[in-house]
Amino acid sequence: MELPDPLITTNTNRLGGTPVFAGTRVPVQTLFEYIEDGAPLDEFLKGFPNVTREHAIAVLELGKKTAIAEATKAAAELS
Question: What is the signed CA dihedral for 1, 48, 27, 24, rounded to 10 degrees?
Fold first, then answer.
């Protein structure tokens, strides 16, 4: 399955501009809240069948890359 590009979209007329999985009305924050609560990815996917496993994993990967880039940037600024 081909992933949407971009993975995440926002629209001020939809959910007040909350970032959502592209092509859905599912807030990205909801995925992170499930993970923070210790729920398995399958539980999130069961609750939000409009989000594919591949899409969810791609968003998690994007979050990981962004966090690492921000931490690297912050560390470089402290040096």
Answer: 50
